[in-house]
Amino acid sequence: MLLGIVLVALNLRIAIAAVSPILDIVRRDVAFDDTLAGLLGAAPLVSFAVFGSLAPLVARQWGLEPTLVAAMLLSGAGEVARSTTEAPAAFIVWSVVALGGMGMGNVLLPPLVKRYFPDRIGAVTAAYSMTMAFSTTTPPLLSVPLARAFGWRVSVGSWSALAVVAVLPWCVVLARRAAARRRGLDADRRPRASSVPAARAGGGAGRAWRSPLAWGLAVTFGMNSLNTYALFAWLPQILTDAGLAVEAGGRWVGLLAILGLPLSFAGPLLAARMRNPWPLVALLAACYVSGYLGLALSPVPGTAVWIVLLGLAQGVFPVVLALINLRTRTAEGATALSGFVQGVGYAVAVPGPVLVGVVHEATGSWTPALAVLLVTVGVLAVASTVACRPAVLEDTWAPRPAR
């Protein structure tokens, strides 16, 4: 089960990271205009929001594990199909399919951790969030050599093999469960001291929007995602306009991605040990503030310092993933909260990169655009006070006692 969780995590960013470095090569063969290229850039956040919101509904009908297997196969099919297409619109459609499977996987991993590792939430979340960070940094190093050696279609399609590998442990889990049921046993139905009545837990997905805790987590997640995607979209140009070479801007973005690795491991472990991890989130928000102020006031002399601070600030993401499980009592509750937080959060993040570009174009300066991002960090800090408060989501679903 642990192997299955880690292998799924390895797939959850590949559809993005494997294509962006070779997009110019793809565009020579598949005639993208700038509008379609812009749609491709917006596809990850939109797909994560839409398919992530659907994941709890499907999981309630099929179960967590079968839904995860279907999501990974959907993602792999999308990767293969877009590598064979000749039409730009079809490439985008199949990219959405691949990203949609990954968006469902994003939502399903936290409740699987809750189900199988309720006493190791921090450690297992650290393992899979670090694997996700690794899957963001590694494909760009391999995509270009693969495209040059075998063509872009092989480079894009070959990553689907990882999706197939990721489903194998879950097929073993499902086969063992089916065998146990034939023998009249079902390990997943053993009573647990921490369980709540199924009707209460399973019916909560549609009520997460009533919970301040769910909204606090969703806004925190959304503001962090907005900043992350805005940085990856615009940091190279910010540094280029400040006087650095184009190649240097790309290297700094690579460092920004790599710096997410240590906090992906440490963040969940620290959050699991803290009754209220808001001081940790506040520290990471302060890293965002310091990094943005540095880019606005002295972008070139202190570039390394600002990039390190902004890279560390990405640790908000794994902390929120851990809180999804730390603030729920059951796998059903974690499924509902994960779908709500990631569905709303990614939807909130969608306009972020566009807004930063519009503000820069309107003002001719990056300072107002960075000021907009500073405002979103302030929203993150305020929302996280609610998200980090010691509370349990299922308690908000309990029926009111009769008077």
Automatic annotation (TrEMBL):
The keyword Membrane applies. Residues 1-396 form the Major facilitator superfamily (MFS) profile domain. GO terms for molecular function: transmembrane transporter activity. Pfam families: MFS_1 (PF07690). One of its GO terms (cellular component) is plasma membrane. It comes from the Bacteria. SUPFAM superfamilies: MFS general substrate transporter. This is Major facilitator superfamily MFS_1. It is found in: Cell membrane. InterPro entries: MFS (IPR011701), MFS_Cyanate_Porter (IPR052524), MFS_dom (IPR020846), MFS_trans_sf (IPR036259). Keywords: Membrane, Transmembrane, Transmembrane helix. It is a multi-pass membrane protein. The chain crosses the membrane at residues 36-55, 87-109, 121-142, 154-175, 213-232, 252-271, 278-297, 303-324, 336-360, 366-388.
